[in-house]
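Homework help board

Subject: predicted structure for assignment chain

Our instructor gave us this sequence and asked us to write out the predicted structure in token form, then describe one feature. I got the tokens but I'm not sure how to describe them. Can anyone check?
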Amino acid sequence: MGMSDPISDMLTRIRNAQMVRKDQVDIPHSKIKMLIATILKDEGYVDKVEVVQVGNWPVIRVDLKYRHGRPVIEEVLRRSRPGRRLYVAKDEIPNVYQGLGIAILSTSKGVVSNRQARKLGVGGELLCTVF
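My token output:
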């Protein structure tokens, strides 16, 4: 049986790996999870993101980032869930911690950060927030 919320599983794997100070974490591969991981890398929350083969299955290997012994990602929260989707209009895109954090949205222009969505002038499904 497959899992009901793979994005939540991804975020939990990252959160748990950082709590025990792991250098990297492996996440089962999917396109949406790869896009989210790439945004985390582009925004400076993780060091490296790559797809590797483990056995017969591709996984996303994320190299976690620490500053002064503390994880760079202090808080990662899933916002929209399979049981309760959360959509925001272009003028309702949240400003996470007064601009110190990011929100990741799934829009008609692809999966983007809140800054990118404002530039593109689009709203969409609010997947998660990261600080």
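Reply (TA_rk): Your tokens look well-formed. For the description, you could write something like this. DSSP finds three helices and ten strands in the chain. That's the kind of observation they're looking for.
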